[in-house]
Write a structure and sequence with these properties.
- The structure is a single chain.
- With 72 residues, this protein is mostly helical.
- The protein has one domain.
- The longest helix is centred in the middle third of the chain and has 18 residues.
- The chain is globular, with a radius of gyration of 12 Å.
C-alpha cells in the first residue's frame, strides 16, 4: 500500500466520538488522526508512491474498518 492509497482510505474512514474498536480509550476520530499523523510523517521524507511497511498498512485497515483484528 502506498502513502497515496492510505490517504484515500483514511479520508473515508469513520470518524465520530464513539469509542473505537481498535482501542476503546480513543474515539474513532482520534484513532484516524493518530494513524494519519504517522502516515503524514512518512510523507515529509518520501513521495506519495512510497510503499508503507506492513504494520502501517495493518493500522490503516484497522481504523478504516473500525475493527480490532481486520481481515484484509
Amino acid at each position: 500500500m502506498t502513502i497515496k492509497e492510505s490517504l484515500v482510505l483514511l479520508e473515508d474512514a469513520p470518524s465520530d466520538d464513539t469509542p473505537s474498536a481498535v482501542n476503546p480509550v480513543f474515539s474513532t476520530s482520534q484513532s484516524v488522526t493518530i494513524v494519519l499523523d504517522g502516515i503524514l510523517s512518512y510523507l515529509k521524507k518520501n513521495d506519495e508512491d512510497y510503499v508503507l511497511s506492513d504494520i502501517y498498512e495493518k493500522r490503516v485497515w484497522q481504523v478504516v474498518k473500525n475493527q480490532r483484528r481486520p481481515r484484509y
